[in-house]
Write a structure and sequence with these properties.
The complex is a heterodimer of chains A (363) and B (147). Chain A is an alpha+beta fold. Among the domains of chain A are: 71 residues, no CATH class; 170 residues, no CATH class. Chain A has twelve helices and six strands. In chain A, helix 3 packs across helix 5 and helix 4 packs across helix 5. Chain A is globular and about 90 Å long. By secondary structure, chain B is an alpha+beta fold. Chain B has four helices and three strands. In chain B, strands 1-2-3 form a three-stranded antiparallel β-sheet. In chain B, strand 2 and strand 3 form a beta hairpin. In chain B, helix 1 runs antiparallel to helix 3, helix 1 crosses helix 4 and helix 2 crosses helix 3. Classes of the chains: A alpha+beta (363), B alpha+beta (147).
Amino acid sequence: MAYVATRGGERAIEQSERLFRAEMGEITADRVAEMRKALPYLVDRVMGEASLYDEDLAALALAQTGGELYEAVLLLRAWRTTQPRLTVAEPVTQENLFTHRRISAAFKDIPGGQVLGPTLDYAHRILATEVLSGENFLPTPVEPASRPSPAQQPSVAAWQAENDLLTAPEPDTASGNTIPDITREPLLFPAKRAHTLQSLARAETGGVLALGYAAQRGYGQNHPTVNELRLAEADIRVRHPRGTEFSAGRVKVSQAEVVSKSGSDLGLGYAATLGWNEVKVIAAATLDLNAKGAPKGSATEEEFFLYHTEGVESSGFCIHFKLPHYVTFQSSLDAMHDARAKKAAQAKRAPKTDISPQVESAE
Amino acid sequence: MTTLPDTLPGWGHAALLTTLARADDARLKAFAENLIPALPEVEVLDNRTGLVMLPMRDTAQGTHFHLGEILMSEARITAGGQDGYGMRRGRDLEAAMAMALIDLAVALGLAKPACAAFLEAESAAQAETDRETLCRVEATRVDMETF
């Protein structure tokens, strides 16, 4: 690959950026606050892909980029590098999640029951066009139950292990800085499981969906059933300098397990991400379920899906093709002209031959 | 010589910090400001934003992995031989400092009734918010027998 340094575009570059920003107009704190309030699922998606949780910063990134998601995620990933890491929190466990939604498609009667939480799964998809005519859309309020749902819901996988359907995993002793971290180490293959799950947690939703969907349609080895899907809030458990462990607040998380029959046992695929984004975690868990033994170069092969769902790298590589490649392309053109000239010279030198098709006579 | 930190009757240190970390930011700052005159000269060791990495346990194979980082505000102060610490979500340095001031006041045994009253009120407000959320969640429970 070859690049060439050029001059002369400074004014055009400056004006092009102004042109982009002119479309969004003035960015105010009120606009950012309104975006945060009105677009919680988009804010969640951006935070998950940026691997940086702060609703205000995510809403600001969306406002500043006019909703160009790849640019918004890139802004947040870049900003993240300006901040020190204060500590690593205690690992979040499923049974301690403050649960808003917990369903299973595999078992009807799961311990704790099925709680739909906030979802449009069963809603009619009708565009409220009356809003455009000045009639406001006011959502019908929830009729709260008289007693609260339990804040913590039991684990479906643990119940399956108790019933000899799954093997309960061994506890991981890694904690703090001993947990492998792809923001500080290269992603190598075969990948450490902690790297795989961290990569999927910060992967680009559309990319994960495309490859997960391919696996679900039959290009994978295992068809998934959602064992458990959970939207919840997780405590950020840190330590006071005197050693006291406490919750420094909560963040929204999504988590999915998908299950498939694997020999005489059940196999589980798993994924989780920051924010509420259930399409992403179901698709990512499908990839995790299918990764073992996947053919080289297939959509479900770990190296393939981890490399190709990293949104900042993939979008960056894609858009770099629009930057000047004058020398590279000129070199290709020169090679093409040269080949044509050689072919023409060859044709001139070669004796004329009859190129009419040979027809075999019918018997 | 460092003395052992004082405590609030009925309040463990973990519960105190958890409540302060989720307390309403405006009320937290207002309450902490009122404590300042009673405190000895405070030295600020840290008041900054930064990231806390949040790991999670995978339920399929039990692996601990990183979900991502969270923007936090932190304050670390010292006075009268005791430390005060605050850490809260977001980029509100004043709120983190307010939390640290209350933690310090409790460790020094100052304004105990006022601190206990503030914590009780905030804890009750947080419990009520959670209860309201969970009552709305409960309304979405599926009664499978009626399917």
